[in-house]
Design goal:
It is a single chain. The protein is α/β, with parallel strands linked by helices and 195 residues long. Helices cover 26% and strands 23% of the residues. The protein contains five helices and nine strands, in the order ββαββαβαββαβαβ. The strands form two sheets. It has a six-stranded parallel beta sheet with strand order 7-6-5-4-8-9, sandwiched between helices. A three-stranded antiparallel beta sheet has the order 2-1-3, with no helix packed on it. It is globular and about 50 Å long.
C-alpha cells in the first residue's frame, strides 16, 4: 500500500527489477483523471511524504524446480507485478520457459516495450508477446493477451500461471487456465480494481 501524508492510500504492485538497488521502489501507475491518488501523484512536490506498507498478496515468483514453464498474462499496469515476477525468476536462475503476454486497448497504450524486448533478447528462455485490441503496430498481436496465451498454451498442465490487471481478464483467465490444465494452486491472480 502506498499512503500519502494526507491519509489517501492505494494498493500498488512492486515493479522494480530483482537485480536493481534494494533501496529503490518502483510502481507502474495509471493516471485516472480525478482519482485521489492519481491527482496526488501527478502533483507531488519534493518533500512530500509517502509511506509504503507491505508487500502483501500471493502474486510473486514461486517455483518448485526452477524449470517449470511460467505463463504471465496481464493488461495495462497489470504488467507491474509480472515484470517483478519475471525479473525475480531470472535473478534466481529459473531455466524453464517464461512467456509474457501483455495487452492493452491499443498498441500506443503498451508501455515498457523496449525494456521487455531487451530482457527477452538477453534471455533465450523468455518470450515477450505484446497484444492490442485495436490500432495494432507491426509485431503486435491482435486481441487479448489471454486469447494468445491460451492459443499458444492449450495444455497448461505443469505450468505456473500469473494473471494481473483488468478484473474481468483475471476472472476469466483463472477459469480458462484451469480448464486448460493448470493446477489451481499454480494460478496466482491480482485483479486491479479502481478505488
Amino acid at each position: 500500500h502506498l499512503r500519502h501524508e494526507s491519509g489517501v492510500s492505494r494498493p500498488y504492485s512492486l515493479a522494480a527489477p530483482a537485480w536493481g538497488p534494494s533501496s529503490t521502489v518502483r510502481f507502474h501507475v495509471r493516471y485516472i483523471a480525478g482519482g485521489e491518488m492519481s491527482e496526488l501523484l501527478a502533483g507531488t512536490k519534493p518533500g512530500e511524504r509517502f509511506e509504503i506498507e507491505g508487500p502483501f498478496g500471493k502474486c510473486y515468483y514461486r517455483s518448485k524446480t526452477g524449470e517449470e514453464p511460467i505463463v504471465l498474462i496481464g493488461s495495462g499496469t497489470g504488467l507491474a507485478p509480472l515484470y517483478g515476477i519475471l525479473t525475480d525468476a531470472l535473478f534466481k536462475g529459473h531455466t524453464g520457459l517464461i512467456h509474457l503476454y501483455h495487452g492493452a486497448a491499443t498498441s500506443s497504450r503498451l508501455y515498457f516495450r523496449k525494456e521487455l524486448a531487451e530482457v527477452a533478447r538477453a534471455n533465450p528462455n523468455v518470450r515477450y508477446v505484446p497484444t492490442a485490441e485495436a490500432y495494432v503496430e507491426s509485431g503486435d498481436r491482435v486481441g487479448s493477451p489471454l486469447k494468445w496465451a491460451l492459443s499458444e498454451h492449450p495444455d497448461m498442465e505443469g505450468s505456473r500461471v500469473y494473471l494481473c490487471g483488468h478484473p474481468e481478464l483475471v476472472r476469466i483467465g483463472q477459469k480458462q487456465c484451469f480448464l486448460a490444465g493448470a493446477n489451481l494452486a499454480d494460478i496466482s491472480a491480482d485483479p486491479f480494481v479502481p478505488a
